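Exam prep: given the inputs below (a chain plus flavin-adenine dinucleotide), describe the expected output before reading on.
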Amino acid sequence: MSGTDVTKVLVIGGGIAGTAAALGLHKAGYDVAVCEAHPGTAADIGAFLTLGSNGMRALAQLGATDAVTAAGFALTSIRLLDGQGTEQARGPLGEVADPALHYRCLRRGELNAALQREAARRGIPVRHGLRLAEVSDGPDGVAAHFADGTTADADLLLGADGLNSTVRTLLFPGARPGYAGQRIYYGYSDAAPDGVPAGLITFVRGGESTFGYAVSPAGETYWFARVDTEALPAAGTAYEVDRREELLPLLRKDSTPAADIVAASRGSVLATDATDLPLGTAWHSGRMLLIGDAAHAASPATGQGASMALEDAVVLAKALRDLPDVPTAFAAYERHRRPRVERNIAVSGGISRAGHGSARPGRAVARPAEPDEALIRQLAWDSPLPAAPPEEP
Ligand SMILES: Cc1cc2nc3c(=O)[nH]c(=O)nc-3n(C[C@H](O)[C@H](O)[C@H](O)COP(=O)(O)OP(=O)(O)OC[C@H]3O[C@@H](n4cnc5c(N)ncnc54)[C@H](O)[C@@H]3O)c2cc1C
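Solution:
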């Protein structure tokens, strides 16, 4: 298997990791196609997320900043309130000097749709309604078998099929996500607390929850709550039930705007389990590689899952572009990415499992002021990716 043999890459999953990887691989000169199980452009299933400055930097390297900043709104500062609504800390959020690198708050479906539109604009096929069921790997290529009975061949296959990845289950059946100790509620509300400036995200350390909210330029409040409790009855996400009534009594114990925001939510109040994958989950086998949540799903506490998926996309494209053969490229990709994404799994899982009460005031605003130089080099499209990252001093 040599890099020069690879022309065709099949991406399973048209979410954030898969579509971004397709943009990167296409930019690196590969013939790439995305196969997505959903029948249409990814629907907004309710959740919103924030992209960090690191994720925005990765997007910029993919040339996709404008495509994504057409949706959502920028966040440039963060504050922490206690359960009485008293401000404990406030500070800038991320790389505020460069508007292209501002944190961004947007619905997950909007981000997926923006990336898929950009892929289509560049001529990358994104095929909907193709649910992967089986894979076969051989010396000359890999074949993906779909639930509708069709098959696609490629030189490489990327498993970008998320938390409950079929590719991961087929390759490494023992690697399963586990519950990280918190239930996450989220929704959108018409109740915007008075005097909240544009670009501010507020964290409230309440008696029974960690609550977060930001007000969009249109006056809509995007909010989430993290509560220490048992896992939901059915594994994974639960979008069917409006869970407002189980959350409100917890929030009403505090003197903060949280309960009013939730009470005025438009549409359902949704809940999902915080889950993560074990450290050391294998990522590749032969011509197949896992990326994004399929490889390194973390609990949402650090809010870095989507940003990590975007970073994956850039580093993988550079590895395949710059290194002489697939095994070397996959190994280099893993050497560059594993320490960073596993640090995120450990930190985020530590926050979730320790419970919201352990959060120290000020922690939420203690973000590094300076961008990480090693990451900037790793993501810079024009700088070649070495086979191994430089030793940390
Ligand atoms: C409540 C919550 C809040 C979050 N908040 C944040 C945040 O603030 N910031 C942040 O960065 N991240 C956040 N995340 C995490 C973030 O959403 C994920 O890390 C990110 O979506 C991962 O992208 P992905 O492409 O790897 O997976 P996904 O976005 O899950 O995409 C996987 C895709 O694969 C498709 N698929 C699945 N199975 C198959 C199959 N067999 N065949 C074909 N296609 C298939 C799916 O339909 C889907 O489109 C949050 C997550 C949750 C649950």
